[in-house]
Amino acid sequence: MSNVAVGAILEKIASKDKDYRYMATSDLLSELSKDSFRAELDLERKISLIVLSQLDDASGDISGLAVKCLAPLVKKVSEGRVVEIVDTLCTRLLTGKEQQRDTASIALKMVVAEINSGPIAQSVVGSLSPKLAKGISSMETNVEVKGECLDILCDILHRFGSLMVSEHENLLGSLLVQLVSNQASLRKRAIQCLAALASSLSDELLGRAIQHVIGILKGRSLKLEIIRSNIQMIGAFSRAVGYRFGLHLAEAVPILISYCENASENDDELRENSLQALESFVMRCAGEVTPYYEKILDLSLKYLSYDPNFTDDMDGDQEENMSGDEDEDEDSEDEYSDDEDVSWKVRRAAVKCLSAFIISRPDMITMLYSKACPKLIERFKEREENVKIDIFNAFNDLLRQTGNVTKGSEYSSSPLCMLEQEVPKLVRSLNKQLREKAVKTKVGAFSVLKELVTVLPNCLANHMASLVPGIEKALNDKSSTSNLKIEALVFLRLIMASHSPSVFHPHVKSLLEPVLSSINERYYKVTAEALRVSGEFVKVVRPSISLASSFDFRPFVQPIYGAILKRLTAQDQDQEVKECAIYCMGLVIAIMGDHLESELGTCLPVLLERLRNEITRLTAVKAFATIAESSLRIDLTCVLEQVIMDLTTFLRKANRALRQASLYTLNALLIAYGEKISGSCLESVINELSSLISDADLHMTALALELCCTMMADQKHRTNVDSVVTGKVLPQALFLVRSSLLQGQALQALQSFFGALVRSSHTRFSDLLDALIAASKGSAAGGGPAGKQAYHSIAQCAAVVCLAAGDPHCSSTVEMLVNMVKGPNGFSTTTLLALLCLGEIGRRRDLSLQTDIEGVIIGSFQSPSEEIKAAASFALGNIAVGNLPKYLPFILSQIDSQSKQQYLLLHSLKEVITRQSLDEIGHVELKEPEMEKILSLLFSHCESEEEGVRNVVAECLGKLALTEPARLVPALRARCTSPSAFTRATVIVAIKYTVLEQPQPIDDCIRPCISSFLMLIKDTDRHVRRAAVSALSTAAHNKPSLIKDLLPEILPLLYDQTVIKKELIRTVDLGPFKHTVDDGLELRKGAFECVDTLLDSCPDQINYSTFITPFLLSGLSDHYDVKMPCHLILSKLADKCGSTVLAVLDALVEPLEKTVTNKTKQDAVKQEVDRNEDMIRSALRAIASLNRISGVECSAKFKAFMNMVVKSGSLVEKYNAVRQESDTLGGDMLSR
Fold first, then answer.
1. 821: Cβ contacts below 8 Å, ≥ 6 apart
2. Alpha-carbon distance 97 to 1141, whole Å?
3. 546 backbone φψ class: left, alpha, beta (φ>0; ψ -120 to 50)
4. Residue range 1058-1090, pLDDT digits in tens
């Protein structure tokens, strides 16, 4: 619409007719809201004046529309016009009539909320702040106006506090005065304003404000309500500024504890406010409050049971002796009631303070179990329901934190042992709660039981009889809500899954009936959970098909089957219920199918129907896999062929999970029912398999190849299958073997496939071997030569083929390969492949009959190609594995005599030792003289100048230590004090190779002396320190129990390695320019990576706040290689202990902002640009994690950083991509 038309609207607004004015104002709002609206200066002025005049319209509807017009108007007019509007509104607020004040206040809040950050915001804030401050502090301003001014100022501070630096001191003075106002509403609003202002105050002004409040509290001469407000102010400051409050804790904590303990009997609100402030210290100043933890914890525990108006000690004693009469128990809870009693607020504040301890300090978990756990269990008898729920939640926090910190712990020394000792008392207390009337109480009790079973499986085996009545009552009672039933069912499912079936056999009859009844509930979530529990019942009543049991399960077969079938056949129900019914029916048939033979004709077609339904097919596929794997060999004749055909078609679908499940199920069906499946079905399966074999999805490839092997093992259809496999699958397999990505399960499956193929009647050994050799040259699919990794894959497959073909073929192949090595080609891919093949065959078979094979291989050490040399070293070592008595002495003698080839020969020796330690731990064929010679040789090379030699020696020593720990560990420990830094570093690296994930005999030898190795982290040589950090990281990952007791001493030393040390930075003069080299970079990077590992394995040993400040903060500003692990650590900390991170969030903003806004030089190469992009994405992932922390909005600095940097400009797309990636990963984890 043109400006002329807008002018017409403005004329109508001047009408005396109220309806005309309303319609015209509505039209104006529509025009202003259009993106295309632009006004000339004169029209802009007119619109502003008219909208401001409409605010005073006698009609409330019209003035309301005028307020709405301001929202789009301030975005469309000039900066000066916005300031004019704001000034006018502020004047009306401060000096206008009552109605004008109210409208002006609403309008100002609207403008503040809508203006964009930038120059306009700066001007508006500069204009408003002095006026509002004057209005707040003026004695002439009435209370209502002051309240409105404080509300508006609070909104401004939340949005633009950092833009008001020049006004901070003036505002602070005006606001602090209000803390002693006699008006409670003004004090409350002043607290909100000061909390919003605090995050952007300088340290000096913040300190002044806090000291002012502390001074008020020290005075103790003011009214109690003013004291309470100032205590609330202390808590608000702490929550707003986090660690910055730490400097004032020495004064604040004793004052608050004093007020809490010395408050008058009736002043429970003062106690509550003090405890709330102390809670904020624990959450937001986690590091700085450490010296006062014990006092605050004792105070919280003291007031957890604070109930001066009621005592129930006698009732508690009677209840323990009177468990029979439930009605009396239920009536007893209402014996006492006092509406004026607010002591429950104190108890609630105390339990929340205790929760803050549990959440923020996992390193205190052991102390919390000894002090807090018994007290919390005792307080389950709390009479105020809301407080009781908070106590349940606090105990759940304790259980969850226990689960987090006990991963990899020794059970006997962990909090789990302390928890187990409390289980009997805990169960008795919870049983009483399950008899209460209140539904919320029973839900809370079940939530505690759920967490308990999750953290400490099998802990309730001796208490099942006492828990059953509570479960029955929750499921049968007509007053039970759906939420209570779901909680009871989830607990029952968890306890059945984590305990021995025999525990439940005495209670099956009493529990099964209410569970089956719950299957018929109308609410789908109850039904779905009841079906899951029914599935667990199936496993419980018949835990083993092959072993006889004294428990007779037969009476329960038909009731379970009937209840599940009813849900399985129903059409009009939720998808979750359908999937649970399919899953349960699969279990019933697999475990009880021999007692349901007459019903199979009914239920199997229904499952087939669900298999053909797009919504339920994935669950049905898994159900048929469960049935196929049953040892009962259920008769599937009526549906077998159709199921095979449907599964075959699923292999073409885009849904990866469906294809994967279909492959697994087909394999299970073929193993169990192969003789009943027609050849045409198998051929169609093979045709589909060929398209699934590629390095794009190695897991799918492995499943497809395993299915091929299963089909080739079927004697009935072998000839036809072999023919189709050779034509369809073999070309894909030959193409796959060239992939540099091939590894793990897929490589193993490919080897099995080639082995099965050579044993088939349709494939000649020579043809297959030639095809493999040709694949290395690129002729298999017309491509170029295979990559380096592909040669190793081809060699392994060739070795499997040779061994599967038999001795004659194997011998002739070895002779051919030896001749290829002898050939005149020097460096060629043929020689490389031949050497690798000889190594793979020699490892599996004794090649000593081949004359002078070792001489031929060692001759390749002279090749100019490093790849040929490495392959020759590999081959020599693996051939020695096949016949140690012959070849090991040869290798040792060569190491002595061939000094130039020691590195390669040591690699050969490493192959021998590695294979021995991997394959035959405890059964080594190395004889004493050979062992002595090897050790002497290895220890003599510990001081080698070549790092590569030392690394090989360390690995050899570590692998040998696995076989003879009693001999090697003391020898390695003795060398920890060697004067040679190279030797000290080598023995530490050797120890690293002894710490494997699986339990080993060496563990008991290492445990007493591992500190001798790890304490070299304080060695003077950086190489030794780097080796110690690496060994610590490996131990933390594989066996955290070995190092947990050492961490209090080691962690400060580890943190010290994260600090930039100037003495390790040197400048290299390269002539035209100078280059700075940081020798400590790798050490810092390794130290942060070690901390990252410790966060996962030993979180209870780490004081997060001590690490974050200053060590993590320093790392976030360090080199690219250091920033990357620091970003990952920050993400983990945000998830694990968000409250601790919140305490220092403002300090994190600056290094993160520098990282995400970093720009590369114009002449930067592509590698530098890519590294910078990776670093920015890494930082954005950390920022996304920070943004998910509950309460992050309290940090104005971080909020401004998100709005002005992360969510604007070029970073928006990157940030959204990172968030989407995170959400996708989270969804995948949940689906698993």
1. 831, 834, 835, 838, 856, 857, 859, 860
2. 48
3. alpha
4. 999 889 888 888 777 788 888 999 999 999 999
